[in-house]
User: Which sequence fits this backbone?
């Protein structure tokens, strides 16, 4: 991420902190100075900020390390002044796994609350006056309260929040994932409207949360449902049934003009409707330069070709896209060529699905 400072790589996951944090530090110091506070209070304030974001980071590691158990890696964790973002490669599709990954973050904060509470009890009982003074009195209590707020806020059942994913996962036990997504998004937006209404009259902060949740729930729902729709697409839906094809008996000189007309970098070679292979323009040019005008194209088809069945899913198509440098992917059924999918088309679709790897909340 741009404008970010690399702070370390615990458990093999890079953690970055956004430069706008400096603004937060300056603002916090300024607030203290305004109130006539001295060096000690400012230091304690900054220590508290550090502790708070340590809790946020642990929350993100909760998600990331749980995802790792299911073979999903995390690109990085970014700390922004508004919260943390763990960029998971993807969310698990299995509702049980999605539930575990989503709930792991808030669960970390619950664990922190319990630890802080025990620590406070311990200090109270042993009456450690010194530590009480050093921590400035409310440090642990404030941190505990903030962690409770983090749990509650993240469990709001609306999409940018973990709670939205928890709800979707729970619904997905009973219904199709795409439907679960739509229901969860609607619940989130309904809730957001409640926040906005309530916030208008009682609390501007709730109004702000409501708008944030409403926009987030809508955006995420759109993205997810687009991804879901894409996932249901097979190569049969994508393939073009009319494409320039070359007969296996054609010679280099015959094919050269076909290539120039079509301007395709590759073309399929067929024997009737039977699939034979793919030949590239580059290969034809090479043969022309060698003067092999009468060489039949069947001698020039690519080796180790990837073909797909009409029922191949988007994931299989994307795998092929990444593994080979083919410009066209022949769709073959029982040896018969039924259509082709172009690399260009796949690149376009892949672009639309990429933002789905992000997982964020505040
Ligand atoms: Zn989270």
Assistant:
């Amino acid at each position: 991420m741009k404008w970010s400072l690399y702070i370390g790589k615990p458990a093999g996951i890079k953690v970055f902190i956004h430069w706008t944090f400096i603004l937060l530090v300056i603002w916090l110091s300024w607030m203290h100075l305004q109130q006539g506070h001295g060096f000690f209070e400012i230091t304690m304030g900054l220590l508290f900020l550090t502790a708070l974001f340590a809790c946020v980071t642990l929350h993100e590691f909760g998600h990331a390390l749980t995802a790792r158990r299911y073979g999903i890696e995390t690109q990085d964790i970014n700390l922004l002044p508004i919260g943390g973002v763990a960029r998971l490669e993807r969310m698990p599709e299995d509702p049980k796994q999605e539930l575990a990954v989503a709930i792991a973050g808030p669960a970390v904060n619950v664990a922190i609350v319990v630890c802080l509470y025990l620590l406070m009890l311990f200090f109270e009982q042993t009456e450690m006056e010194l530590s009480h003074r050093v921590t400035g009195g409310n440090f642990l209590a404030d941190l505990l309260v903030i962690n409770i707020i983090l749990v509650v806020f993240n469990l709001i059942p609306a999409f940018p929040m973990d709670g939205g994913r928890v709800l979707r996962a729970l619904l997905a036990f009973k219904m199709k994932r795409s439907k679960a997504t739509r229901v969860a998004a609607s619940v989130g937006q309904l809730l957001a409207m409640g926040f906005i209404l309530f916030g208008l009259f009682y609390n501007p902060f709730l109004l702000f949360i409501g708008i944030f949740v409403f926009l987030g729930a809508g955006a995420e729902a759109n993205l997810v449902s687009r991804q879901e729709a894409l996932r249901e697409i097979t190569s049969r839906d994508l393939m073009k049934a009319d494409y320039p094809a070359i007969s296996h008996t054609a010679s280099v000189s015959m094919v050269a003009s076909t290539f120039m007309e079509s301007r395709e970098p590759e073309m399929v070679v067929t024997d009737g409707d039977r699939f034979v292979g793919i030949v590239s323009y580059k290969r034809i040019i090479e043969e022309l330069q060698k003067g092999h005008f009468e060489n039949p194209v069947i001698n020039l088809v690519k080796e180790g070709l990837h073909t797909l069945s009409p029922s191949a899913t988007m994931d299989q198509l994307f795998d092929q896209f990444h593994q080979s440098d083919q410009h066209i992917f022949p769709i073959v059924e029982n040896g018969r060529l039924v259509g082709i999918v172009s690399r260009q088309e796949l690149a376009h679709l892949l672009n639309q699905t990429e933002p789905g790897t992000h997982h964020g909340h505040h």
Observations:
- The domain at 236-353 is CATH 3.10.580.10 (CBS-domain).
- The first strand starts at residue 4 and ends at 8.
- The mean pLDDT is 82.
- DSSP finds 13 helices and ten strands in the chain.
